[in-house]
Specification:
With about 250 residues, the protein is mostly helical. It has one domain. Helices cover about 80% and strands about 0% of the residues. The two termini are about 35 Å apart.
Length: about 250
Amino acid sequence: MNDLILLCLASFGAGFIDSIVGGGGLIQLPALMIILPQYPIVTLLGTNKMVSVTGTAFSTYRFSKQIPYLRTIIVPAILSSFVFAFLGAYLVSIVSNHLLKPIFMGLLFFVFLFTIKNKSFGLTNHDPNVKIEMWKPLVVGAVIGFYDGFFGPGTGTFLIIAFVGLMGMTFVQGSAYAKIINLTTNIAAILLFAFKGAFLFTYVIPMAVFNILGAYVGVKLALLKGNTFVRGLLRLVILCTIVKLAFDFFSA
């Protein structure tokens, strides 16, 4: 019971953070690994994905009520992210993801510096009359979808940065679009884990409830506080992700 309470609290925090700027995996997955070390890692990964997808689905629904989605952007991104997330999850058993950690540490550090230097980054509304070339959402979905299936940490953060940087969105808009793509990549990964039966349903259901509660509070706060709040939280999550990747890399 104590383990379940701790995991539910971690899920609430993960749902809260993930609904705004991504990075919920920095809380929930380590909690599962620390509290339930007796289970295989693939089972914990599958359980983490199953819980996360509930909060992400709820966040997507809540954002869709406030932020209009452009089909020309979201449809190509969904299709490419699903295909490449499944491909990434398949290839993870062939290529060591240890090689990717220093690369993504460098990318995140560059993004962190960029958000500090560029004061208007993510604070200007996207003009719906400006046509976005189809290659942009296709590439965003493919690259980050593959990354999520192959490696994972910081996927939501990378998605927000991509939508803001490549398509001129605000942080709140970027977060709304990121939720749909993150939901897609999570579903692709869950389909793969389903073949292995890698879920702990005793923990999944109560954790999912708390993940949704965290997502509810997170989305409400993001829409209420606006882009400046999301920008500040994004910087904090980026720093935490860099530290986590560095710790994993040098420990290994």
